[in-house]
Write a structure and sequence with these properties.
It is a single chain. This protein is an alpha+beta fold. Helices cover about 30% and strands about 45% of the residues. It is built from 3 helices and 7 strands; from the N terminus they run E-H-H-E-E-E-E-E-E-H. The protein has a 7-stranded antiparallel sheet. Strand 4 and strand 5 form a beta hairpin.
Length: about 160
């Protein structure tokens, strides 16, 4: 199993950042480069506890489907999305939102903790170490930059 963590400082209050992080539409717009779309379950609007969404995206030249559920939810500080079906043997993504201050302004320290296991061991284990961990970290950083941009500049 692999784990990575990402922290992003967002100059917006936790409820705003939390809600943005659960927006299907915002997620889709952040992943345009992979043509990611919500194709089943909750396909637009805000996700909540127990909701499922099936994503279709293109990565590594292949089209993938991943169905995830919101398995934990404490607004506005914490939620978890977990794979129900999809390409990983295991996918658990915890999101935390901690109120903080930056230059005398209200801010949020958004943290992502991702635990995952690739399929097809032992080759999957090698792929985790050589490619997937770095690739998935880059995707989360890209998504977080989009959330940061949208929540810090709501009139754009």
């Amino acid at each position: 199993m692999s784990r990575f963590e990402v922290s992003t400082l967002v100059l917006a209050p936790p409820p705003i950042v939390f809600d943005a992080s659960l927006s299907v539409d915002l997620h889709t717009s952040s992943m345009r480069h992979s043509n990611e779309q919500a194709v089943a379950g909750t396909t637009s609007g805000q996700l909540a506890l127990g909701d499922q969404v099936t994503w279709r995206a293109r990565h590594f030249g292949l089209t993938w489907h991943l169905t995830s559920t919101i398995s934990a939810y404490i607004r506005p500080t914490y939620f978890v999305d977990e794979q129900v079906t999809g390409p990983f043997r295991h996918w658990h993504h915890a999101h935390t939102f901690e109120a903080t201050r930056h230059n005398h302004s209200e801010a949020t320290l958004m943290k992502d903790i991702v635990d995952f296991t690739a399929p097809a061991a032992p080759l999957g284990t090698i792929a985790e170490a050589l490619v997937l961990k770095r690739y998935m970290t880059k995707l989360i950083l890209h998504r977080n930059a989009h959330i940061k941009e949208i929540t810090e500049n709501p009139l754009r």
